[in-house]
Amino acid sequence: MKFKFIIFIISFLMINSKLCFSQEIDLIRIVAIVNDEPITAIDLNDRLQLTIVTSNLPNNSKTRQNLSGQVLQNLINERLQEQEANKLNIKISEEEIIGNIKFIEQRNNLNEGELETSLQKQGVSINALKKNIKANLINQKLLQQIIKPKIIINNDEVNNEYKNIILNEGKTEFKLSEILLNYNDISSKEEILSIAQELRKQIIETNDFEKIASQINRSRAGKFIKNNDWIIETNINNDLLKNLNEINTNEITKPIITNSGISIYRLDGKRINSIPNLSESVVNIGFISYDLPINMNRINEILSEINNEIQVITSCEKMKKESTKIGNKKGNIIGRTILNNLPEDFIKSLSNLKPKTLSKPIIANDGIYILMICEINKELNQEFALKEIVKKKIENRSTTTLQHRYLLDLNRRALIDIRL
């Protein structure tokens, strides 16, 4: 009897040790190889847990199954971007990662260290969060170094969109926020649709689209696109337009299926398009500049000399001519520019300045400046302001397109072995 009991204990221990060993083997199992670099089941499970927790999704096998393909594709994209960053010697410091964690805590009204504690209680390791933040920072740096320099804004495109703004006055337009879940080669459309439906359910229950959308974006399970531009009804596809006309402001649409992905939209606003008066946001200016004196104790003396020297300037034409003779000879006519894009002390100086009148000398970190408003033409200012808005829209649109192409290109050139 005693011998049988010992055999039972040994058998029990062997079975349990086999189970534990099997679980450990499963965790270190390779789910994908990206250019000879493995992505393990641990990497996938850590990111799945982070995505589920931060997106308020149900933590069950169905959610994990539906999310797995999309999350794995994100991990593959991140690994490809990290490899590109290494080639370009792009580095992410621990200080940058910690700074981002503090920013997330501040934005969510959490005390320092509270985010880590909260995530750990829900089964998310701080290492998973740090890896996710590092991937986002690499993406941002690649955007600035690789994508942005490739953006070309064509004048014909700007002029055509400007004309459309004029022609669309009086039509219905919408302001939207969007959660976009892109299709990928791993997840089926049905799985992505299931996730979109679950997200919609969570948004309705919590009544917090912004928070869930931000969390989805940070976890890279999808994209949060907050569009500050108004979209004319003629530029919206029929399925989305039908949904938008059935809901009220701050309500969300059903999942909208397109050729590239599945989106959930929030209706942020609806109005009849009228073009605002933006002429006051533009100034047409020129400047004369001087170098700072080596001995700042002489600043009052220098300012007195400058005031005497610039008395001959009575127009921007005269300013342009004199700028080649006086000061540091770097003065110029800037022309039209958006007022709020100028330094704060420039804005303050220009606020009460009359056209063709010299400002008082402005002492900046890089020199001494004297400004002049050249002319006020409200019609030309309005056109300039609208075209600047158009340029920003084209830049944002081009950035999104080029980012997508860049990731596709990285995937096409890579050796990827998926073992999920």
Question: Any overview of this molecule?
Answer:
The protein is an alpha+beta fold and 420 residues long. It has three domains: 127 residues, Porin chaperone SurA, peptide-binding domain (Triger factor/SurA peptide-binding fold, Orthogonal Bundle); 106 residues, Chitinase A, domain 3; 97 residues, Roll (Chitinase A, domain 3), CATH 3.10.50.40. Helix content is 53%, strand content 16%. The protein has 14 helices and twelve strands. It is globular and about 80 Å long. The relative contact order is 0.12.
Spatial separation of the terminal alpha carbons:
47 Å
| Oligomeric form | single chain
CATH architectural name of the largest domain: Orthogonal Bundle
Q: Percent of residues in beta strands?
A: 15-25%
- What spatial form do the alpha-carbon principal axes imply? globular
How does the major sheet shape up? 5 strands, antiparallel
Write down the Rg: 29 Å
Which terms would index this structure?
about 425 residues; alpha+beta; Triger factor/SurA peptide-binding fold; Chitinase A, domain 3; 3 domains; five-stranded antiparallel β-sheet; four-stranded antiparallel β-sheet; 12 strands; globular; disordered N terminus
